[in-house]
Amino acid sequence: MRWLIPRLPDFQGRHPDVPVHLVAGGGPVTLGRGIDLAIRRNDFLQTGAVHATPLFRERTGPICRVDKVASFFDPPDAHRLPELRADAVLLQSRSRPDAWETWARLADCRTLGRRSQSFEHFYISLQAAVAGIGVAIGPWQLVRDDIDSGILAAPAGFIEDGTVYQLLAPAAIIEESPHAKLRDWLLEAAI
């Protein structure tokens, strides 16, 4: 939604003969029942035989509205990046309940005991950050357009979390096929 949809008109312009039907989902997917390909993060056990093409590594970091940076982060100094203020509201999600914990461990930052607000889905927590409610953990690829347009900021930067977004197919993709056109375009768009 936040990464693929804004880029999809480019693919459609290049390959108007290749229809793309999108279905939202996460976690394991059963390919072959009306779903030819899937884009998933490799943070779950995929059952059944699949062929995976890595698209990009997941890099996450705390994100907030640009005009809220001073409210949610202490200023940086010469030796460190800005740090979360003790009263910053952490935006959590039920679909990625360990996002803050994972980032805090990798960044060596303490987040326990801070005020938080929870949302049903990860994308809603990102939208809450856009609204200025607090600080969410944002994956670079999903928030980069908002950062580039000046809506969001990532004062502490992004850290790789060890997961990878990948294109899943039931078997190796046949070159020159519509699936290959989509795969090649995704690899180009992921840069």
Can you describe what's shown?
- There is one protein chain.
- The chain has 191 residues and is α+β, with helices and mostly antiparallel strands.
- It has 6 helices and 9 strands; from the N terminus they run αββαβββαβαβαββα.
- It has helices at 4-14, 69-72, 99-107, 122-130, 140-148, 178-189; strands at 38-41, 51-65, 73-74, 83-84, 90-93, 116-119, 135-139, 152-153, 159-169.
- The strands form 2 sheets. Strands 1, 2, 5, 6, 7, 8 and 9 form a 7-stranded mixed sheet that branches.
- α3 links the parallel β5 and β6 (116-119).
- The chain is elongated and about 50 Å long.
* Gyration radius, in Å: 18 Å
Annotated CATH homologous superfamily of the largest domain: Periplasmic binding protein-like II
**Integer count of domains:** 2
What are the secondary-structure elements, in order, as H or E? HEEHEEEHEHEHEEH
How many β-strand runs? Answer: 9
Instruction: Give the rounded overall mean pLDDT.
Output: 90
Structural class: alpha+beta
- The CATH architecture of the largest domain: 3-Layer(aba) Sandwich
Q: Provide the low-confidence segments as ranges.
A: none
What top-tier CATH class of the largest domain fits best? Alpha Beta
From the spread of the alpha carbons, the general shape counts as elongated
What percentage of the residues does DSSP assign to strands (E)? 25-35%
User: Any idea of the CATH topology of the largest domain?
Assistant: D-Maltodextrin-Binding Protein, domain 2
Annotation field: number of helices = 6
